[in-house]
Q: What sequence folds into this?
């Protein structure tokens, strides 16, 4: 494993997270904040491992603005989730920012759950079980009288792969399975709602390459070549493609790529009870010792 690149990716992810956190203010334009954070990642020598995610209030994940999105931050609870790739090695981290003044405890619940899970992993190393991590997260979030989101989870990280096994639960699944060595993201979500997310409220604008397929139209073929070259198997967004190919060509091209199954779509995930959602995330490396690579 290229640990040096992994550490660099983690360091840049942490720096971009802190940089981004300071940009999220009532009145600032969401798309400009995303553009600035992505430019910051590039300036530090990294590549966004996925489009910078800005999920508001009851949207839990998989949300980012389109190129022409005029929205500004108001009084929302903002989840800022970003990943950085260096030579394919990925650091993934997230922070929640409360612009409403009403959700400090919800954020504290997610952060404390993450930190307690990290303490447990540090103590037990590769022998920690998935159930133990899930139980720690669930118990901590319940102690604040909130719910963890049960169908969102931490995950492994692979080379140019943002989600690899295992699924690291945010509740006690009873899985007596050891986590083992490797690179993992620990990411609890706390909510005032039902504790479950679903998709389908909005259209997806985040995609990733599944398998190159024979493509009929010139537009779609050009876009596919660009995706393979620039993003490999990492997720990308319409905003990036529209900046290069224009809106019409991007939409037509992506439509065809979806129809033939060349790309996978990630629609926004919303909380089913319309609860507000907070998130906290760090990436860790477990070898002979445990290292939190996205800590500042
Ligand atoms: Mn993340
Ligand atoms: Mn993650």
A:
């Amino acid at each position: 494993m290229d640990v040096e690149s992994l550490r660099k990716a983690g360091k840049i992810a942490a720096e971009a997270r802190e940089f981004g956190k300071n940009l999220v203010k009532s009145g600032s334009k969401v798309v400009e904040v995303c553009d600035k954070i992505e430019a910051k990642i590039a300036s530090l020598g990294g590549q966004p491992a996925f489009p910078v995610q800005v999920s508001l209030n009851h949207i839990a994940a998989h949300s980012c603005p389109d190129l022409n999105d005029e929205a500004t931050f108001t009084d929302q609870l903002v989840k800022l989730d970003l990943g950085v790739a260096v030579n394919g090695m990925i650091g993934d981290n997230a922070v929640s920012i409360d612009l409403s003044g009403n959700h400090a405890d919800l954020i504290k619940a997610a952060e404390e759950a993450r930190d307690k899970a990290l303490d447990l992993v540090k103590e037990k190393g590769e022998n920690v079980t998935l159930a133990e991590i899930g139980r720690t997260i669930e118990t901590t979030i319940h102690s604040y009288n909130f719910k963890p989101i049960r169908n969102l989870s931490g995950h492994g990280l692979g080379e140019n792969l943002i989600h690899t096994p295992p699924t690291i639960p945010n509740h006690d699944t009873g899985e007596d399975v050891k986590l083992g060595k490797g690179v993992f993201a620990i990411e609890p979500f706390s909510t005032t709602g039902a504790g479950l997310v679903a998709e389908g409220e909005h259209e997806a604008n985040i995609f990733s390459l599944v398998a190159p397929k024979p493509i009929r139209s010139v537009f779609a073929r050009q876009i596919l070549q660009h995706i393979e070259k620039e993003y490999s198997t990492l997720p990308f967004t319409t905003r990036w493609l529209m900046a290069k190919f224009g809106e019409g060509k991007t939409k037509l091209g992506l439509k065809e790529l979806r129809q033939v199954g060349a790309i996978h779509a990630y629609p926004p995930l919303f909380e089913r009870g319309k609860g507000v959602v907070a998130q906290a995330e760090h990436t860790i490396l477990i070898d002979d010792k445990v290292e939190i690579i996205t800590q500042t």
